[in-house]
Amino acid sequence: MTTSLQSAAAQDQSNIIPFLPSGKFYFSHGIQAFQKRRFNAAVKWLKKAIDTSPDEPLYQCQLSVVYTEVGSYHAANQLLSEVLTKFGKEYVDCYYLMANNYAHLGLLKDAKKYADTYMEYAEDGEFEEAAQQLIDMLESLDEDDEDDEWAFDDEDELLIYQETAFYHLEHEEWEEAIGVLHEMMQMFPEFTTAKHKYAYALFMSGEESEAVDIEVDCLEKEPSNIQSHVNLATFYLEMDKRDEAHEHVELLRNVFPMHEQQKLAIAETLARAGLYKEAVERFSVLRDKQVVRRKVYYKWYSIASYHTGDPSKALNLWEKGCKQFPKLSLDGGPWTER
Q: Where are the alpha helices (DSSP H) in 18-153?
């Protein structure tokens, strides 16, 4: 009897068909996670879909969209480039997606090139209107604008340096930032933003006089330079020299730049100066993902919100900032006297 039962059980087991998830299975879970804005889960599922079905370009394209949503524009474009290399113009939408990512990165020449390519090959494409708007915006920018950080031929190498310096600055690793920025200044002398970041890192590392001298010298050559005014206002406020800071702060109150990074810098400066209501107004219009995930955005928007009677928003911003930048918790909170 026992033998017959074992035989029957073995036969039943041999008839079980194992469940082998397909790429489509993982992809559907990735889409669901993305729609619920659970981006880490979406990346996990979509990577499984790609591993299971590496010849399905749709999965790579969707993963690139997730990367774009979280601000990983370089990673998104790497995926899209692979799709174009393997499948060519059949996936023409990749050109627009890449143009959009390059625009976010500030690589305006590349953004224009890929948007133009999309318009050339797309026939009644889904992104045709958006691509044309992007092209119009890029063409409206003054290519000779000295504030344009990216008007260089060797943009990829510059981007690597910029991202490295940005990482060290965000994590307050001043000595490391100074080294990278100094090398950038040697290799890309026309990249004036590196000099301002270098001065900021010098100041924060304790070299206050040298940092001030750099920006004073810059202003003598270019009196309207926004970044010089931002840095000098910051330096003087940090040194508790409010009279010296006043001139620069007052000038910045009347400046409304186009570039998101400059908008953030002015909002931060106004908050440092105690002009909280104006700072909140400036912070509230920021939209670029690379800007609204910055440490200074969380910190100073939180402080400005708290001092304008919105403690709930202040706490929410502070908690988000501490989650992404644990060192921020050492600053106490938006209610701490500054």
A: 23-35, 39-52, 57-69, 73-87, 93-105, 108-121, 128-140
